Every structure is written in structure tokens, then in C-alpha cells.
Automatic annotation (TrEMBL), chains A, B:
Swiss-Prot/TrEMBL GO biological process terms: glycine biosynthetic process, by transamination of glyoxylate
GO-annotated molecular function: alanine-glyoxylate transaminase activity; L-serine-pyruvate transaminase activity
Family: Belongs to the class-V pyridoxal-phosphate-dependent aminotransferase family.
Transmembrane parts of this sequence: none
SUPFAM superfamilies: PLP-dependent transferases
Domain of life per record: Bacteria
Annotated binding of substrate, by residue: R356
Stretches assigned to the Aminotransferase class V domain: 46-346
Name of this protein: Alanine--glyoxylate aminotransferase family protein
Cofactor(s) demanded: pyridoxal 5'-phosphate
Cross-referenced PROSITE patterns: AA_TRANSFER_CLASS_5
UniProt keyword annotations, A-Z: Aminotransferase, Pyridoxal phosphate, Transferase
N6-(pyridoxal phosphate)lysine sites (modified residues): K209
Length: 382, 382
């Protein structure tokens, strides 16, 4: 039947085995994964219903609760990158017409706006210049005005390097029956987070930043309150892949097949979480803080300034002002191609104005800072 | 501020480094990835906008066109497992109210029905007992009746082991302005596919079967006709993560950031595709066919029967009838725990009636067959 059709070789490439340059990834992510994590990914796969794999999923769930400091039973890894986990929070809880209030002070606030709209939300926003954060008063006023079903805030704005304080926000939300949704993509593992203490109902993150894993399996958690909203929906979740009612039957005791998990990434995530647990969460947070302070001092010592006020700076990601007369893109390219160091450029309001320097997970080490400063000195002619 | 909260160690586990049993995965997937592929995943990550990574994405695109036998410019890997790529086909092309006709002869046909409904489709179905396929006449009549915007067929029904012939279906579709959407999850790399010859407009697959990769980065392709439907949409795609207009700007020449790709999985996928290209597509198909015929003969030699008529059997996945009086689950469990061999059970109509045996990618070798038959003989007491 098909044997009469001849094979078209137009797109046939004869390639050599994979070889990639060895970069130090000090941009906004991905960061270099811990070597132990990469080694674990080179392990023969198990089936997604193998008892040995199900046990590994339980370990991931438990350790995600630990790093997020939550008791939420529904704490899992989504089979996609952080953006998929972000989408999962909205897809499951937004019903058409729900008022969703979003704090926008950077690129990822805007992404939440776009996503929420796609799920039929009546989106309201409050905004701040990129690099600033919202005060508790500003949040309180906005909640009073909009009485939203969901308030979404970005804990660690990857585009600006600012840390949004969250203490007491959850309490305010409870006054209005509002669910609190938080982006912890650039904070999980590197910045103190106490989800339950803060009354956070929905959170998502990624694997390749504070956790020091490779990207592709992304932490997701929802509180019992958020689960109740999901269970009361009148319409199916408009996203089969990320439907937490279906996924809960796979991650929970029923073990009903939903989709084939990215097995080897889960190996990596399990190892990354094991390493954080072995270090201890408090030590891990302190290491990130100590190394970023060394970075800030070192950058200042060569005449560079930070974009965000010190009090609100993230330990994981720093926005560094590009000096007058310097072409930030040219510098970043030189760092990459001449020194094998990746730093990020600015997005949106900060395009052309800052470099974004990440010190996350395995890369949060003094050696990373020293190597960057040495290279910057050469490139900037300091 | 946060220093007064003490860390809760309830969910802290102190784990040993990862160790997993070494299984031969002869179920419906995942299959064992090629050792070279796993080794490639243990390579330090690049940034998702690094020129070296963008070049690797180009290689993936080209080789996906080769294995699918298509010229579609929009041929990419989705950052999720096969189910995400499946969802991407519907999310991008279904607009609320569109008539979507789906051929249901197994579990994955049903999944398409569920998914399409979530995107607002007016879903119509034709159905067959599980294990059978639709004739061209049946398809033609259904097209005439429903005049759908999209016809979705499962080329390789993973739940039944049946291969749906597709020659001439695309021509019929063109008479009604219908887009042809095809599930090639269990066929890509292992079963002859000629997407362009067959007039297929949308297809998806996975990495962990015929391609011999690890799961998590999944092939997706759409024709120019399908792209036109996407471009003419009146509403945004109700799925940000899988929006092909946004993804096209990352995979295309603009290189605009969309999400952080699962870097190390792309390394693996590139290597898996490189190995298929080195073997040659025709050789790869022939190897799958030859080894499955050896499997069928071997199974028959120990008195077992196949569920699907020979003409429509897949070379990648075989459904084997469980003999009267045998508990299929007990046998599968013994194979797994005593012989380290995974086979799958039946789903839906075939639950308790068949085992599903995959010979895909790296696992399509005579040694896999020999090991399975030896173990089956012991377990069944033959």
C-alpha cells in the first residue's frame, strides 16, 4: 500500500553526535543543573505506573511540600515547564466571568493577564513601574474595590528582580473570599517562602532555578479552598493536560493513568529536591542570600548599580543597570561567546536598561560571582 | 520579616541517591530510551536563546519533517508529553461551534472527544469495536453527513494495536474543506507515515516510542491550510502554553522568548532523531516490522493469539489475547517484579482481555522478544 511511495530525503540531516559549549548560565534561567541531577537523568526509564516510579512521585510530592512549606495534599509536578504550571493555576480555578485581579509590575504579571483572559476571566489590574512592589495598603484598597475571585501576585518577578512581600496578604484575601495565587518561579528554593503561613491558595514554580534541576517538570500546589472552587465548577477545565481533577487521580491513591510522565525529568527533580533537603531549606536560603550580597558588592566595586531598592531585591535574580553609553546586548554577547557566561537582557520597560544576573540553585556559589566579575571587567575595560 | 517563622520539617525526607530497577519496557510506552540519548541528556544545559541551542532546534525541526515526511514549515517539538501535543492540535484549530468529527475505536479516540469538547467543538463521532479500523467508505459517508471543520483519526491506536489506513482520506477531506488531524503517537518512527502524500493537516506524536527518546518533548506539525485556520481565528487560542502563533515566533526566525524549553530533553530528542536518520527511515520501519513479525510467531508458538486482524496490526504495539482462566494482571505483575519486564494491560473495552506489548525504538530488537517469551513461558508454565 505504502511501499510505492518513495521516501523524501529533503530534510534528512547527517549529524555528528551532540556537542554543546559548556556555559555558565547566570541569566534568568535555566541555570546549570547540579551534576548529580544530570547524572540521574541518565538512568533507564521506568513505566509511569511502575510501583518504583509511583514511590518516586510520592517522594517528589513530600519534598515539594517541604520546600514550599505547605501541607497542601494536592502538591505535584506538572509535565511541562514553569509556564505550564502557571497556566494550570488559572485553567483550573478561573470560570468564565470570574473577576481576577492581577498585580502587574513586570513581564510575568502581564503574562498572567493574557492567560487569565484566555480562560474567560474578567481581568482587573493594578500596576507599578517595573522593579517596584505593591504595598499592603495598595493591595487592600484594590481588593476592596474589585472583590475578586482570585488575586494573582508575582512573588519573584523574573523580569525585574523584585521580591513582592506576601505576609498578611492571605488574611486580607480571606475577608473577600478571594483565592491568593502566587508566582514563585524565581523564588522556590532560593527565597524564604511560607505558603501556608502566608495563606497562599495556588502557587507554581519551575525546576531549573532555585531547585537546580533541568527544566521541564514544574511544581504546582493548591490549597483545600482552591480545590473546593475547582470541584464546584459548572464547566470542565478548558485544558485536558492540566486538569487537576484528572491529575489528582494519577498523583493520588487511585493511580489512574492520565498521561505518560516525563520520567527522566522526574528522576532529576527528585534528586534536586533530595539535595535541597540534605542541605536544609534554611541553609539553602542563606546561601542564596550570602552569595547575592557578594555579587552586589562585587558589581558595585566595578562601578555598577542595581535597579531594585535593596530591601526588595531578590537573592536569586539581580537587575544590573547598564551604564550610559554601553550597548548591553554587545556586552552580553561578548560574555557569552568569549567567556561562556550567559546573562539576560531586559524585557519590556527594562529593555536595553538592565542586565539580568541569576545566582540560582547550583550556580549560587562565590565562584560564579568571581568568574562573572572577571569577565565583566575585561569586556567593560575596567 | 520572615525570620520569625520557623521551618516546618513535617515533609522533610532524608533520601538516598536515586536507584531504580532496570526494566525492559515492553508496554505501550515509555520504551527504554537509546543509551546514547540518555547520555546526551546528561549534558550541561544551554540557555533557550543561546545560538547553539537555536541551531539544535533547527536540527530537530528538519529531522521531524524527515521522519514525518512533510514539508510543513511549522513542525516543532512541544514542551510536554504526547498528550500536550495532542491538545495543541485541537487548541489551535478548534473555534467554539466548529464541527469536529472523531473516529473512535479505542481509548485515544475518546480522549480526543473529551478534549475537543473542552475547546467548544460541536463533536460528532463514528465508532468501531476496539481493535478494528474505519474503511474509506465509512469515512466518506461520515464526511458527507457531518461536513466537519476537522476530521480526527488515530493512525496508531495505542489502546488496541490497530493501524488506521490513511491513504486517500486527505483527498476526501479536501472535498469538504475539512482539516485532517492524525494521532501518530505510536506510529512515528516505527510505522510508515507519509503526511504530505496523505494530505494530513495536523499531527502529533511523542518522543518515547518509535523515536527511542525519553518522554517530555513531543512532535507537532501543522500544514499551511491548518495555519490559515489558526490565523483567521476570531478568538485567542484558549491555551497560552500551546499557542502556535506565539510558539511560531520562538521556533521561527524571530526567536522571541515564549517559555523556557526543556533543554536536556531537546538534547535527547535531537540525538534520537539523529540515530533514526543515521539508520535511515526505511530501515527503521523495516526493523520494526521484522521484529514484530518475530514477536507474533513467537507468541503463537507458545499458544497465544493476537487481538487485531493481521492486516491492520501495528508493528509497534501488539494486543495479545489473555487466555481463558488466566489473570492478566497477575501475569503482568510477575513479569514486572520477577523478570523486570513491563507489559501493559488492556483499557476500556479491552480491560482484562489483552496484554499490550510494545516493540518500539531502541526496544525493537529480537533480544527483547526472546527475553519476553522466555519469561512468559515461565510465568504461564508453558
Amino acid at each position: 500500500m505504502t511501499s510505492t511511495i518513495s521516501i523524501n530525503d529533503n530534510h534528512l540531516l547527517k549529524l555528528a553526535p551532540l556537542e554543546v559549549p559548556n556555559r555558565l548560565l547566570l541569566g534568568p534561567g535555566p541555570s546549570n543543573a547540579h551534576p548529580t541531577v544530570l547524572q540521574a537523568m541518565n538512568t533507564t526509564p521506568l513505566g509511569h505506573l511502575d510501583p518504583a516510579f509511583l514511590a518516586l512521585m510520592d517522594e517528589i510530592q513530600s519534598l515539594l511540600r517541604y520546600v514550599w512549606q505547605t501541607e497542601n495534599p494536592h502538591t505535584i509536578a506538572v509535565s511541562g515547564t514553569g509556564t505550564a504550571a502557571m497556566e494550570a493555576t488559572l485553567a483550573n480555578t478561573v470560570e468564565p466571568g470570574d473577576v481576577v485581579l492581577i498585580g502587574v509590575a513586570g513581564y510575568f504579571g502581564n503574562r498572567l493577564v493574557d492567560m487569565a483572559g484566555r480562560y474567560g476571566a474578567d481581568v482587573r489590574t493594578i500596576s507599578k513601574p517595573w522593579g517596584q512592589v505593591f504595598s499592603l495598603d495598595e493591595i487592600s484598597t484594590a481588593l476592596e474595590t474589585h472583590k475578586p475571585a482570585i488575586l494573582a501576585l508575582v512573588h519573584a518577578e523574573t523580569s525585574t528582580g523584585a521580591r513582592q512581600p506576601l505576609a498578611e496578604v492571605g488574611e486580607l484575601c480571606r475577608k473577600y473570599g478571594t483565592l491568593l495565587l502566587v508566582d514563585t518561579v524565581t523564588s522556590l528554593g532560593g527565597v524564604p517562602i511560607f505558603l501556608d503561613e502566608w495563606g497562599v491558595d495556588l502557587a507554581y514554580s519551575c525546576s531549573q532555578k532555585g531547585l537546580g534541576c533541568s527544566p521541564g517538570a514544574s511544581p504546582f500546589t493548591m490549597s483545600t479552598r482552591a480545590m473546593e472552587k475547582l470541584q464546584k465548577r459548572e464547566t470542565k477545565v478548558a485544558n485536558w493536560y492540566l486538569d487537576m481533577l484528572l491529575l489528582g487521580k494519577y498523583w493520588g491513591s487511585e493511580r489512574i493513568y492520565h498521561h505518560t510522565a516525563p520520567i527522566n525529568l522526574y528522576y532529576g527533580l527528585r534528586e534536586a529536591l533530595r539535595l535541597v533537603a540534605a542541605e536544609g531549606l534554611a541553609n539553602c536560603w542563606q546561601r542564596h542570600q550570602k552569595n547575592v550580597e557578594y555579587l552586589w558588592e562585587s558589581l558595585e566595586s566595578i562601578g555598577l548599580k542595581m535597579h531594585v531598592e535593596k530591601e526588595y531585591r531578590l537573592p536569586t535574580l539581580t537587575t544590573v543597570c547598564i551604564p550610559e553609553g554601553v550597548d548591553g546586548k554587545v556586552v552580553a554577547r561578548q560574555l557569552l561567546l568569549e567567556h561562556n557566561i550567559e546573562v539576560g537582557g531586559g524585557l519590556g520597560e527594562l529593555a536595553g536598561k538592565v542586565w539580568r544576573v541569576g545566582l540560582m540553585g547550583f550556580n549560587s556559589r562565590p565562584e560564579s560571582v568571581d568568574r562573572l566579575i572577571e569577565a565583566l571587567k575585561q569586556v567593560l575595560g575596567k
